[in-house]
């Protein structure tokens, strides 16, 4: 790894810890700091990220990953595996959603088999290079090296074989209906795969094409369990092909180009042209340049080597999803196969994200640093509404029936409020109103319990709608988002007042006796018995201690319900001081999110899941910002690492990574669909953010160390700044922020009423 580091030794807190804590200066190539293996040491029972080493370009349509798991296993790559079964084209957003548009490539020597166990080879991480733009692995059983480098819709492979007359490349098109055809005279393989996990129309196919630079010495295809030499095409439940090569010398290489399309075989051929005119090594460099350009939009200096690695690895994860689901036709037009109605239509489409996760930080991050990308995503959302009648809440690739909330409203509103001006905003406004007032075709589309919510102001506990309290709290925030959008668009007073009123519905679930949110029956009585440590039931993948803070829009109002700022501060403290006890009776066993909270040694704080990730920043709303500064640093230090077990729960399509990226920069979007970020505790000595409008945000942190995590003073463009928040609209004009840090809290800063961040009820006054 060629890193051009300026290394300086600094003292931490005036004392020497293990000699010196080294800080890293400016890095010319941030890609060198990225590890794609972070989060891959995960299992069904305990997640350290539940990621796979995605080999892809930013937001690319097709990802590639080494495959250690069996066909159909959502855990396609686990760090502790000893054998590799192939290199898989994947569109998997998470193991829980599983995959679609998939097939696998494997190289073999002297072992002509399609069986996924018999063809597997031992491998070692010592002979593996896992980078965003390049992957290589040594297949020990075959003395063969496999390399690949991607474009947005294609990938270049290079196989280095030993001297042999029986080198093979296998294409496994997987089961559930597939087709393969070998065309020897063109040194080509074509076909399609239909294997998916749902969310697709009946005519769904992933059409693939592969071309080789050497002639085939022999050909075989398999159908289900039968391998037949000399057969060139086959359609069955599970098909594939094996093509052979004769290597006269050790080290001889076979080059393969692969691409796919959701539109047609002809479009797959067009997508393959993304590799025209470049060699394998040139594509590697091209991919590196693309990643360095995107990662380099944020330059951080003056962190430890681990902090730098975590930051840029998290930034890489923040630039993967939602992925492109559109293609470019022969005339240069943007087209997409609709995962909603099965038609081929013009315009953008993106997919593979769950808004329950990503509305919180990932989409606000795109609006700040990559607004031109989210502009295309907004067009894609409008197309999704036109084609399905609904905005997706979890798309993979079409509508999926998981999670709760109606957070597409936040994704649309935050973009508009932050200045992302979609030409489709009227369609999107129509879409968010439709979603806010109707139950959809799936429980997770639109709003389950919409009629109850409109009548009562909450989704009742006793009407057989699960996770009802979580739904109510999220619906209330989503109504706030619609209110913000209606205001910004100058919509009718009736619209504005309706959604503003509904944004206060969180009050209906606050139980004064416990000081927490609680399920409520249709007749207005509280659900009984009530255990605030019970996961699930009225809440989603959490308990009342987690969801009681889901009042993003009105923290001041929540504080009043809890008895005032001091009472809420004590309540916030309790999250960390309570033991990590739990009631798992709703699930019947401790789900992995429970275990991840239990073992983290941070009380009831469950950073491995999304509902509570904003909670630490709420100390800023009650005049105790130094406590936020302390716990933000603790979370960054303890819950993240640059290693395969580097997350404390599911990474979830960039959300948990975007939390780290924002927090490392020193601020966080507690309330998407507003103009504000809440201040935390920046970890780097110097940060330069290159905005798409040509402006820069410069952040300098003086006297910064792990002990000096408390803000003593903040200057904005040279002037003292006491507020606990930053305005997006001012930041994007260009800004210079200077933080002066210290080892002791400054309890006089950020405590006045004018210093506190946005709250709806405060804004009303």
Structure description:
The protein has a domain at 54-276: Distorted Sandwich (Beta-galactosidase, Chain A, domain 5), CATH 2.70.98. It is 26% helix and 23% strand. It is built from 19 helices and 38 strands. A hairpin with a 2-residue loop joins strand 35 and strand 36 (719-720). Residues 743-765 are annotated as: Disordered. Residues 267-742 form the Glycosyl hydrolase family domain. It comes from Sphingobacterium lactis.
Q: Would you identify the regions where 5 or more consecutive residues have pLDDT less than 50?
A: 1-20
* Amino- and carboxy-terminal Cα gap: 57 Å
**Morphology call:** globular
Radius of gyration, in angstroms, nearest whole number: 26 Å
Quantity of strands, as a count: 38
Strand content: 15-25%
Q: Which CATH class of the domain at 54-276 applies here?
A: Mainly Beta
- What is the count of helical runs? 19
The CATH topology of the domain at 54-276 corresponds to Beta-galactosidase, Chain A, domain 5
Structural class comes to alpha+beta
The biggest beta sheet is recorded as: 9 strands, antiparallel
Major β-sheet strand ordering:
8-9-10-11-20-15-14-13-18
Specify the CATH architecture of the domain at 54-276: Distorted Sandwich
Global mean pLDDT: 96
The helical percent reads 25-40%
């Amino acid at each position: 790894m060629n890193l051009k580091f300026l290394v300086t030794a600094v003292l931490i807190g005036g004392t020497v810890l293990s000699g010196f804590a080294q800080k890293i200066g400016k890095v010319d190539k941030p890609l060198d700091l990225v590890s794609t293996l972070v989060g891959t040491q995960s299992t069904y029972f305990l997640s350290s990220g539940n990621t796979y080493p995605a080999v892809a370009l930013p937001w690319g349509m097709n990802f590639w990953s080494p495959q250690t798991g069996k066909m159909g296993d959502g855990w396609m790559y686990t760090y502790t595996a000893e054998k590799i079964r192939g290199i898989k084209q994947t569109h998997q957003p998470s193991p829980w959603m599983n995959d679609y548009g998939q097939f696998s490539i494997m190289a073999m020597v002297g072992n002509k088999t399609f069986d996924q166990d018999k063809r597997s080879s031992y491998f070692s991480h010592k002979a593996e290079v896992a980078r965003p733009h390049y992957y290589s692995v040594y297949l020990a059983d075959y003395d063969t090296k496999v390399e690949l480098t991607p474009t947005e819709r294609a990938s270049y492979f290079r196989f280095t074989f030993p001297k042999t007359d029986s080198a093979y490349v296998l294409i496994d098109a997987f089961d559930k209906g597939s087709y393969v055809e070998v065309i020897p005279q063109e040194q080509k393989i074509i076909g399609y795969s239909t294997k998916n996990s749902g969310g697709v129309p009946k005519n769904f196919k992933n059409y693939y094409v592969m071309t080789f630079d050497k002639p085939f010495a022999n050909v075989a295809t398999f159908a289900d369990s039968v391998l037949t030499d000399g057969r060139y095409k086959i359609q069955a439940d599970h098909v594939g092909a094996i093509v052979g090569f004769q290597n006269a010398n050790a080290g001889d290489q076979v080059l393969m180009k692969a691409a796919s399309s959701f539109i047609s075989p002809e479009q797959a051929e067009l997508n393959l042209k993304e590799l025209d005119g470049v060699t394998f090594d040139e594509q590697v460099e091209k991919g590196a340049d693309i990643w360095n350009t995107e990662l380099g939009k944020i330059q951080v200096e003056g962190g430890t080597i681990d902090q730098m690695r975590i930051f840029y690895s998290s930034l890489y994860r923040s630039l993967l999803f939602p992925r492109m689901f559109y293609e470019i036709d022969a005339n240069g037009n943007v087209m997409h196969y609709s995962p909603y109605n099965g038609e081929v239509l013009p315009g953008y489409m993106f997919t593979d994200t769950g808004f329950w996760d990503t509305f919180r930080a990932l989409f606000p991050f795109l609006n700040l640093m990559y607004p031109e990308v989210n502009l295309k995503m907004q067009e894609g959302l409008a197309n999704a509404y036109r084609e399905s009648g609904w905005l997706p809440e979890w798309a993979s690739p079409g509508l999926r029936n998981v999670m709760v909330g109606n957070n597409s409203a936040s994704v649309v509103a935050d973009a508009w409020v932050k200045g992302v001006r979609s030409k489709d905003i009227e369609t999107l406004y129509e879409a968010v109103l439709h979603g806010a007032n109707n139950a959809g075709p799936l429980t997770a589309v639109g709003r389950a319990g919409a009629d109850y919510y409109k009548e009562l102001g909450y989704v009742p506990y006793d009407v057989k709608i699960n996770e009802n309290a979580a739904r109510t709290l999220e619906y209330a925030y989503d109504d706030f988002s619609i209110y913000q959008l209606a205001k910004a668009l100058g919509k009718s007073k009736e619209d504005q007042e309706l959604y503003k009123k509904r944004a206060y519905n969180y009050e209906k679930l606050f139980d004064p006796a416990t000081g927490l949110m609680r399920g409520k029956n249709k007749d207005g009585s509280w659900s009984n018995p009530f255990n605030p440590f019970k996961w699930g039931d009225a809440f989603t993948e959490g308990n009342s201690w987690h969801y009681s803070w889901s009042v993003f829009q009105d923290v001041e109002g929540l504080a009043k319900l809890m008895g005032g700022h001091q009472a809420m501060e004590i309540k916030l403290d309790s999250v960390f001081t309570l033991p990590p006890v739990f009631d798992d009776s709703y699930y019947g066993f401790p789900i992995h999110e429970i275990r991840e909270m239990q073992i983290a040694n941070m009380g009831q704080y469950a950073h491995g899941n999304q509902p509570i990730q904003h909670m630490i920043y709420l100390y800023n709303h009650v005049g105790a910002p130094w406590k936020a500064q302390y716990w933000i640093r603790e979370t960054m230090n303890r819950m993240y690492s640059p290693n395969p077990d580097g997350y404390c729960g599911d990474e979830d399509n960039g959300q948990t990574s975007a939390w780290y990226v924002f927090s490392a920069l020193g601020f966080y979007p507690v309330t998407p669909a507003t103009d504000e970020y809440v201040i935390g505790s920046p970890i780097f000595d110097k940060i330069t953010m290159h905005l798409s409008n040509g402006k820069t945000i410069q952040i300098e942190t003086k006297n910064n160390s792990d002990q000096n995590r408390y803000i003593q003073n903040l200057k904005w463009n040279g002037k003292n700044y006491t507020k606990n928040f930053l305005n997006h609209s001012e930041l994007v004009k260009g800004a210079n922020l200077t933080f002066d840090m210290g080892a002791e809290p400054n309890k006089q800063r950020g405590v006045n009423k004018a210093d506190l961040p946005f709250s709806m009820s405060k804004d009303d006054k």
